[in-house]
């Protein structure tokens, strides 16, 4: 009997770990060393989780072999709620859900919300899980443009032009993956005004909220709109360099009394998966309540700040390449001048770079960017190594033809 995949997967992709990644795995199995610049995996580049976080996990292991409550451990949820209180977001632990990373929680939010044909406004470029989870749940991802000429901030006119009577929610990724943009308070306020006007839920993906450069402040969207239903997402994967613990959270705030049915749906879905990884949950209070070691990496002269800055300079030094300097996160999203380079398929470009240079990056169209003129590069390597890698990309491009 021939077994085929479900039609629900039509149009669903996740290019960060897609076909190019399969090519990379085959090359690695053949003995090649692949520089994996496709995923923001801190451990891959020697960035360890804080010791106090790991100590709490180890110390709590004997008490972590059973299920927790469906929403998560009460003391971990309380720590999350208290953290957001300090950021101006009013909530309580009953509106905090813990998950196996933010990815699981995003899927739960879309499953609980969407009817077939409902629309969600998602930035272009986006973190592709948002588009995939919308599509898998019968929704339609409608991409609003972020403007490269305006530090990659959302285009408010484009957002307004794409709202219909089927629009249910708008997604904000701030700091942004893949562009590294950090949205100013004035921009957030404008987006929230649109959500308020049209009765939209705001999904605020803030997983990089402490990875900030050059003194750039981060404002949590929910803190600016106590009258708008917001769902804020974060976790331990990036700021706390503990991706493998799969510990994430979402916080509902605003007029939650108007969303009782939706929250009941989320609660049911949380119960269906029983609970999130309990050892990972044990790390949450120590992480968000302890010393924030990420600031040593993101401050001027810190490893992440230096890598981001020098990567931007090195990319801008390549003829036909331009790159807006990131204000946060762990990526650069440079533009390729297609009048300068013979590139018609950015996926082919990324594959050819992998085969020749053994460098694994991700094409811009993998982030639902509409043109084949960008790529994303992870900035987790040391600055010297990253500068050398970008030099290799420049030399490759100098002779590249499709």
Question: What is the topological layout?
Answer:
Blueprint: H1 19-29, E1 35-36, H2 51-60, H3 74-86, E2 96-100, H4 101-113, E3 119-124, H5 129-136, E4 140-147, E5 153-154, H6 156-161, E6 167-173, H7 185-198, E7 201-205, E8 230-235, E9 247-253, H8 260-272, H9 278-282, H10 284-289, H11 294-298, H12 303-316, E10 321-322, E11 331-332, E12 335-336, H13 346-357, E13 359-360, E14 362-363, E15 375-378, H14 383-398
Parallel strand pairs: 1-13, 3-4, 3-6, 6-7, 7-8
Antiparallel strand pairs: 2-9, 4-5, 8-9, 10-12, 11-15, 14-15
List keywords for this structure.
single chain, 402 residues, alpha/beta, Aspartate Aminotransferase, domain 1, Aspartate Aminotransferase, domain 2, 8-stranded mixed beta sheet, 3-stranded antiparallel beta sheet, 14 helices, 15 strands
Q: How would you describe this structure to a colleague?
A:
The chain contains 14 helices and 15 strands. α1 runs parallel beside α13 and α4 (101-113) runs parallel beside α5. The strands form 4 sheets. Strands 2-9-8-7-6-3-4-5 form an 8-stranded mixed sheet. Strands 11-15-14 form a 3-stranded antiparallel sheet. The protein has a two-stranded parallel sheet with strand order 1-13. The protein has helices at residues 19-29, 51-60, 74-86, 101-113, 129-136, 156-161, 185-198, 260-272, 278-282, 284-289, 294-298, 303-316, 346-357, 383-398, and strands at residues 35-36, 96-100, 119-124, 140-147, 153-154, 167-173, 201-205, 230-235, 247-253, 321-322, 331-332, 335-336, 359-360, 362-363, 375-378.
